[in-house]
Write a structure and sequence with these properties.
- The structure is a single chain.
- By secondary structure, the protein is an alpha/beta fold.
- It has helices at 3-23, 51-62, 75-83, 97-100, 135-141, 156-167, 181-188, 199-208, 237-255, 258-267, 270-288, and strands at residues 27-33, 41-43, 46-49, 66-72, 89-93, 103-111, 115-119, 128-129, 132-133, 146-149, 171-174, 194-197, 215-218, 227-234.
- The protein is built from eleven helices and 14 strands.
- The strands form four sheets. The chain has a five-stranded mixed beta sheet. The chain has a five-stranded mixed beta sheet with strand order 11-10-12-7-13. The chain has a two-stranded antiparallel ribbon with strand order 2-3.
- The longest helix has 21 residues, at 3-23.
- It comes from Halopseudomonas yangmingensis.
- Keywords: Signal.
Amino acid sequence: MSLWHRLMLVVLLALPRFSAAAGSEPESIDWVLWPIPSAVIVVDGKPADGTAVRGLQLLMDELPQFKANYRLGNRLRQQRDMQQGRQFCSMPLLPREDSDQYGLFIPYMVSTPIQAAVRHSDLPELPLQDGNLSLTRVLAETSMQIGASAHRTYPPQIRKLIDQAHAMQRAQRIAGSPSGENLLRMVSHGRIDLTFEFSSVTQAFTRHTMLPEPLYSLPVAEHRELVITGIYCTRSAWGERVIAELEQGVRRISANPLALLDIYRQWVPQETFEAFEKQLLDYYAGRGLSP
């Protein structure tokens, strides 16, 4: 048999395998997303847009072997469902020790630092340092009352200051909406004086909500680091396999992050994006090289 005939035979034998692969249905992944202003925008009861939704769509486009099914959820229900072994993934989430018991985490998108949300009319009286709000001076020099969500995971520096304020009876840990909208309303209505939220969330909430007092986001002097958020998948054999493939997709997107930066340009206030653009590029450059 000639070489040409042998090559044709190899191709013919391989055709059924390639045809089956091409015709196979993508595997479905259930994604649980939390309704958070600017991150997960809900339309007709379903996640439809926002920074997290756009980032997830980029990732799914990178992994055609998967098909995404979106549904809404919250932290308590998500923890319970993962504990019971239900197979799904969720984002955007901060790493937590209790979540690590039932879920597998990989970092994906980062947020610009969480900021202080205050009433615009209070700006002249606040202890500012080069445009940043010093929480240490807030506690020492003012009587401002701080509100923190009982559902949220705050960066360590912010959490430490919340604990300090709580010990001074200057902070409340408030339940209610996991998205934090209730705390922003409470600031506007004067029930508390300050809370912590990402600038993109405060901006989106202020734009789409009638408030008695306009809100303003201020950088926090004690917290200038980017906040890493990522993906949790159920801790199981299924989760290990899926999270490994998601990790490869995250690395490829991070290695060429222009599409990700376009999301920030659209959703993050311009002055915030410009202040942290280099840090964002540095983070994704490193993430693309993650071992």
